[in-house]
Design brief:
Keywords: Oxidoreductase. It is built from 13 helices and ten strands. It has 348 residues and is α/β, with parallel strands linked by helices. The chain folds into two domains: 292 residues, Alpha-Beta Barrel (TIM Barrel); 40 residues, no CATH class.
């Protein structure tokens, strides 16, 4: 497992994050032994980031028990925003009161006195971003939070938040959490370029598209068991991309899931896939994606199956950059060279 810095901080985080959303059964259940085995396998592979949330059922409490005696070895990340009590209008949102109460509850559940990375779970349109950023910075100054991140928010809002933080000496978002996979590439339009410009790490959730990219829906016998994805909802494009991942996997001697996970990292060095698993065997397979580098031809074949268009303004700007009449022939020629190198996934 390789490590990178979290955003522009000095915190070292592994290339694969572990998603503990599936740790939902309460402590004392028969699943605790399996949860412990999964956490041990992730740590043995070199992984050090555990991602959970206040809204993930019993996940925080389970992690608090499992991490007893070894909590400092891990980068523990959790989230707030979602409701703690549907009957209370102030038990949700990104305002100072919900942040304060949610943070205290997460600290108790996780049996720790600090959170390594505290994520805003989703944009709250009613709370001014100034209030959220100041409240987060206050929590950082108390030592209860070390770093902050944001999930499920538009690029303009994240950009404004980090600009405010820079101007006012507050803690800036070091991480961005978004859905990202071969079937869902829309973050490449605005969010991913913004994160790269601010030096933010990108935690990619759903990198296997609910298991579609693992190939389990393409088998003649079907996925088997209950799934979060309705097999009847899959389109011809979904199946085509899953087949492309399987073909590449067969050629490389790996699994389709490992190919799909490796692809997310091929797009940007900032991306860290969040690998979840229903059991130890599945987690072990996903961990096999660590260090897997896809050949440029394989990346092109996978992306040609997705039929993705960046859209305006990205495509329009790229066309202008390659036109001599916009920036001049010398600049246009250099831009065409850079794009050709990027298309082959080489170094510019």
């Amino acid at each position: 497992m390789r490590y990178r810095s979290l955003g522009r901080t000095g915190l070292r985080v592994s290339e694969l994050f572990f998603g503990a959303m599936t740790f939902y059964e309460p402590a004392g259940s028969g699943r605790m032994r399996e949860y412990a085995a999964m956490l041990d396998a992730y740590a043995a592979a070199g992984g050090n980031v555990i991602d959970t949330a206040s809204a993930y059922g019993e996940s925080e409490s389970i992690l608090g028990e499992l991490l007893t005696g070894k909590r400092d070895r891990f980068v523990v990340a959790t989230k707030y925003t979602l409701s703690r009590d549907p009957a209370d209008p102030n038990a949700s949102g990104n305002h100072r009161k919900n942040l304060t109460l949610s943070l205290e509850r997460s600290l108790r559940r996780l049996r720790t006195d600090y959170i390594d990375v505290y994520w805003v779970h989703i944009w709250d349109r009613l709370t001014p971003i100034e209030e959220t950023m100041r409240a987060l910075d206050d929590a950082v100054r108390t030592g209860k939070i070390l770093h902050i991140g944001v999930s499920n928010a538009p690029a303009w809002l994240v950009s404004r938040a980090n600009t405010l933080a820079e101007w006012r000496g507050w803690t800036a978002f070091a991480g961005l959490q978004v859905p990202y996979n071969l079937l869902r590439r829309d973050v490449e339009r605005e969010l991913l370029p913004m994160a790269e410009a601010y030096g933010m790490s990108v935690a990619a959730w759903g990198p296997l598209a609910g298991g579609v990219l693992s190939g389990k829906f393409s088998r003649p016998e079907g996925p088997g068991g209950s799934t979060r994805v309705d097999p009847g909802s899959l389109t011809a494009r979904d199946h085509a991309v899953a087949r492309a991942a399987r073909e590449v996997a067969d050629e490389l001697g790996v699994t389709a899931a490992q190919v799909a996970l490796a692809w997310t990292r091929s797009r940007s060095a900032a991306v860290h896939p969040i690998i979840g698993a229903s059991g130890l065997a599945q987690l072990t397979e996903n961990l096999g994606a660590a260090g897997l580098v896809l050949p440029p031809d394989a990346v092109r074949r996978l992306e040609s199956a997705t039929e993705f268009e960046q859209g305006y303004p990205g495509d329009f700007i790229a066309e202008c950059e390659a036109a001599a009449g916009v920036f001049g022939e010398a600049v246009a020629a250099e831009n065409r060279r850079i794009q050709a190198v990027r298309d082959t996934k080489g170094d510019v």
